[in-house]
Q: What sequence folds into this?
């Protein structure tokens, strides 16, 4: 039987859905016939997309506040009365070394990058378990495997995401819920704005890949749809590096 890469009719929750990678994922799902609940703090940034379709809903929430995550999860479930896919794309990178990083900045980074994916997925997992099918996609990073300057907080959380992905897969895959992560290389997003302001650095990073260029957001759509569809039902606990071969060199 030919595997299906379709997400038509599925319902996806995407955190960080108002900008960067999360917003591109929201658009990708809508283009392929899925309904989307975008979670972010900025509903106005999704107005242009929401005006074109009834398949997009927005849940405004601060994912650094653990008390609000359960409320946001219930609101998300109520939007379409089912959840098939959860994408934990929200993140922050303070880009500071240990001597400059405050405890508040450390705590915020851990809360958004690591605690929120755990808590939100934990709240949404029962409905996927009841359905007998679900896809969880976390966003890892090159820093899940490598250290970069001024990345002590971000790197720690993204290393944690890799292990969280494996642990989630071990616990939930027998219930039909697969859990994987996408680890992007260097892509132009608000999170990497400072990197892409330096043309020499951008070129240096491109030359460190096997393909000779940095990523464009469209490069992430194919891996996303694969991991979101039944074509990947036997793939779980994996971290897929979409980095142009950066980690291969």
A:
């Amino acid at each position: 039987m030919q595997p299906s890469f379709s997400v038509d009719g599925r319902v996806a929750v995407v955190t960080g859905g108002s900008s960067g990678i999360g917003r591109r994922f929201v658009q990708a799902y809508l283009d392929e016939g899925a309904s989307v609940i975008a979670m972010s703090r900025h509903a106005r940034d999704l107005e242009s997309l929401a005006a074109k379709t009834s398949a997009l809903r927005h849940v405004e929430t601060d994912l650094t506040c653990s008390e609000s995550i359960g409320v946001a999860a219930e609101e998300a479930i109520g939007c379409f009365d089912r959840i098939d896919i959860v994408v934990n794309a929200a993140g922050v990178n303070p880009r500071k070394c240990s001597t400059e990083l405050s405890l508040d900045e450390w705590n915020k980074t851990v809360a958004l990058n690591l605690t929120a994916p755990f808590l939100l997925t934990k709240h949404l997992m029962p409905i996927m378990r009841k359905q007998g099918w679900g896809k969880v996609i976390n966003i890892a990073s090159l820093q899940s495997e490598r250290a970069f300057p001024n990345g002590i907080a971000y790197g720690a959380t993204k290393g944690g995401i890799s292990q969280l992905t494996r642990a989630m897969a071990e616990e939930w895959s027998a219930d039909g819920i697969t859990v994987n992560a996408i680890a992007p290389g260097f892509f132009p997003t608000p999170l990497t704005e400072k990197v892409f302001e330096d043309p020499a650095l951008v070129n240096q990073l491109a030359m460190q890949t096997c393909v000779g260029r940095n990523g464009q957001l469209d490069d992430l759509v194919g891996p996303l749809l694969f991991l979101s569809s039944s074509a990947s039902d036997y793939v779980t606990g994996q971290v897929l590096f979409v980095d142009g071969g950066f980690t291969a060199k």
